[in-house]
Amino acid sequence: MPDLSFVSQLAEARTSVEAPDDHRVLTQLIALIAPRHPSPDIWALSLLNQFGSLAALLSAPDQVMQNIAGQTPAFRVTLRLVQEAAVRLHQARLMRVGVLADRGQLKAYLSAMLAHEPVEQVRVLFLDKAHRLLADEMLGRGTVDHTPIYSREVMRRALELEATILVVVHNHPSGDPSPSQDDILMTQRIAQAATLLGITVWDHVIIGSGRLLSLKEEGVF
Fold first, then answer.
1. What is the pLDDT along the chain (221 residues), one digit of tens a residue?
2. Where are the chain's structural domains?
3. pTM score of the predicted model
4. Which intervals hold domain MPN (predicted)?
């Protein structure tokens, strides 16, 4: 059975530097999903050894989750709901305080969305002049190392939303966030098209294994 006192510990951890580790959180989650499991702590440890972190487990593709020994449909659905709740929480905060106000919050949101995606995905955050999030949309999905995206499609959507600032984001499933030549050219094309329309490309962020690289900070544009 789950330890109900753990809920109050989680609340206290928000104001503490010693937050519960992944193993404790996953153990309690398993106890809720599978209350008859004889050793939720051992299963939690096994899953963390397999995936590396709770975040990686929550973001695992469906076909990978289906191959987890001992998993059930309830287990998979619950993990998906936890991941979706985390993403929506981050998104709500960004809508309230503004995307550019808290880089740590932005990193947490982008990591939750893309850090463990098995193929490349390009997303664009469309912001208003107050830096509030108008929309976060996937505009390209490709292979493990390439995703085509066209600047005209990005601009068309920006005009529809009346967005004035864009943040382009994509992941590198290899784990290395270093930009390829294609990444650099894509960024420059989007930035040039945006300038003609009076729209600002604030950054292009590449995510790899939880690491974020800013092409703006790298001097690409």
1. 555 555 555 545 454 445 568 899 999 999 988 888 889 999 999 999 998 888 888 878 778 888 898 888 889 999 989 988 887 887 777 777 677 767 777 777 787 778 777 888 999 999 999 888 899 999 988 765 556 788 999 999 999 999 999 999 999 988 899 999 989 999 999 999 999 999 999 999 999 876 889 999 898 87
2. 5-86, 99-214
3. 0.71
4. 99-221
The answer to whether 215 and 185 have CB atoms below 8 angstroms apart is no
Select the CATH number that applies to the domain covering 99-214 from these four: 2.40.50.140, 3.40.50.300, 3.40.140.10, 2.60.40.10.
3.40.140.10
Query: What 3-state class would DSSP assign to 139?
Result: strand
Q: Tokens 């990686």 sit at which residue?
A: 56
- For residues 99 and 167, the answer to whether their CB atoms sit within 8 Å is yes
In this structure, the number of other CB atoms found within 10 A of the CB of residue 59 comes to 23
How long, in residues, is the chain? 221
What Rg, from alpha-carbon coordinates, does the chain have?
A: 19
State the angle between helix axes of 40-51 and 22-33 in degrees (0 to 180), rounded to the nearest 10. Answer: 120
